[in-house]
Amino acid sequence: MNGLRGINGFQLFWWVILPYLALATFVIGHVWRYRYDQFGWTSRSTQLQEQRLLKWGSPVFHYGTFAAIAGHVIGILIPERWTHDIGIPENAYRWFSASAGTLAAVLVIGGVAVLAARRLFVARVRATTSAVDWVALILLAIVIVLGIAETVGVGLLGGGYDYRQSVSLWFRGLFAGNPDATAIAHAPLIYQVHATAAWAVIAVWPFSRLVHAWSYPVWYLWRPFVVYRSRVASRPNEPGTSGRRWRRIGVRY
Amino acid sequence: MRPMAQVCMVMNLDKCIGCHTCSVTCKQTWTNRPGTEYVYFNNVETKPGLGYPARYEDQERWKGGWTLDRKGRLRLRAGSRLRKLLTIFYNPDLPTIEDFHDPFTYDYARLITAPPGTKSPSVSARSALTGRELNPRWGANWEDDLAGAPQRARSDPNIATMSERVLMDFESVFLFYLPRICEHCLNPSCVASCPSGALYKRSEDGIVLVDQDRCRGWRFCVSGCPYKKVYFNHRTGKAEKCTLCFPRIEAGLPTICSETCVGRLRYLGIVLYDADAVTAAAATPDPRDLYEAQLSVFLDPEDTAVQSAAEQAGIPHDWVVAARRSPVYALIARHKVALPLHPEFRTMPMVWYIPPLSPVADATAAAGYDAADPDAVFATIDALRIPLQYLANLFTAGDVAPVRDALRRLAVVRSVMRATQLGLEHRNDAAEELQMSTADVEDLFRLLAIARYEDRYVIPPAHAEDAGRLLAQHALSGCTLESEGAPGMGGKGPSTGGGPVSGRDLAGRLHLRLVAEPTGRDQ
Asked: A49 and B97 in contact by Cβ < 8 A?
């Protein structure tokens, strides 16, 4: 555990224990939600209530987010050594990271601006937003704004910062069971807050409308057009449970 | 041949008085919940009119249903599957809540809490979406009895395609009512549009349902349905649609809209059809041939080959018997007085309509009209107040001939039966030209005029015991009262006291006779 040498208790808690708690919440939360709350598992579309803003905001935001996620895969999951080994110099990587990242950032911030305005100022849309959705959306907004500040403010306009030497090492280390807390603990504050908010989003994810991301219906491309179903035998439900096998502890039905 | 059974409805528009009882009872049964305020599984539209949601029939705009590609193959009008996945973040064909209506209620508390004063307190409309005051501008029943028709009705998509002459004749105004539920189509485009596979057609009875647990709210079913009978619950974020009251149908009872219809104009029954023939029929090149194509998909339940094929396909015997007695099959295929709603959408709809007769608009101009012989409507069907072309645009993709024949058959039943009952002389030439035997006329009279409960609804109960058999191993554990010799053996639902299948149970509910016996009323 080289990465844990020379860090204090707070740093250990913040950069190692909290991420693992968030990951555990993410996994267990999804299992729980999937088994317990299929009925609540939906994209919660508000297109019925408002279309003109959604027409631009939603596709731009979603496609921008896909680009941003792809950028994170390249920058955080793929080790710097690999891009080096296939002959991509650091300068070229950084130029690509800053420019492609900025393009994604423009899309995401444009989409988010429209969607946020819509959610805040269109009464019909605001009325559909639940408390946990507000938490998830606000955390997401923090992650996005800081991420854009990093990409554009630091990467494009500023001196640049090689997050692949710090943030990436720590992040990958978490999954390898060997988190380099020292690396993230000495990263600039903006990266630290971005990473923390991202873990918070991960923790809230299974309880919010964000679960719809896992339901992107790729299967639709192959399945037959008309779905038939026939009656199948099923065991009768436990009385009063409406078929839910998981119950709150201490509640009789 | 792959026979399948389908529960099908026919509505006799000749009898609809537009009382909206069906809508009210349906709403009280299914959609009196938050999130479904604007949802009408059943609604009654005044025609001509825009309908609900506004101009839903205009598929140039909404892209519902199917169309043919250049090679003549069936494809969703809204585009390919890939296109759906790419536009999933914004569905370009979805109606907004404005096209339905901003659901509202009234702030009734103000009537009580208003401060004392000289003015009577009044209540204003409150949006169910936001709780704010609003000014209603459109709704499910906005154009009832042609309200606002001078401004709006010309935008009816069925009028837009009519000839100049009919447009001018609009001065002599006409109206009729069109109650609408989900069509439970044989080739449902909502099911084909659902990316999640949450919508499905039940193989036993053809009812189209939304699996609320699998729906992910991608809302392509709403735009995919050309009849706009799938709705988006704005509270749950899930699609909902008419269920054809499947819990009642499974119990052999008519849907609540049928049960409560004061005009007794709805018919429910089984139709057998060839599932292998559906796609080819739906891909018929000329939309005007789609009515005949759909007729060709239905199987004659009197045909012994069909009967044995049906039983081989696992359709229970009592269902085949019910298909033979089906009033719906009789009205659709045997007598050809019922027609499908907008067959040109190519979904093979399974709620059919008997077109309404109407008074003769211009007696002097009608060829062959004889004021002394009012029953000779045969010659004057073309001069009826409701233009044939308008009905044809609704029911046969614009082909007037089947509508004319259906109306003539209705007129023949009236004239023949009136003459028979009053002992008058009557000519049979009209009936002969339409190839209607006396038995046909009397059968139609029994179905349409007498219209007894038992004749209107022939619904075989679902065979839930077959589903239970699969679980029979469970019974081997000994934890049951229904094994051989146990007290619960052979129980199939609550006992009716060992009486016949037909009769009245404790709740006063009429059980439907299922075994075909050409007798009159129950003893």
From this structure: yes
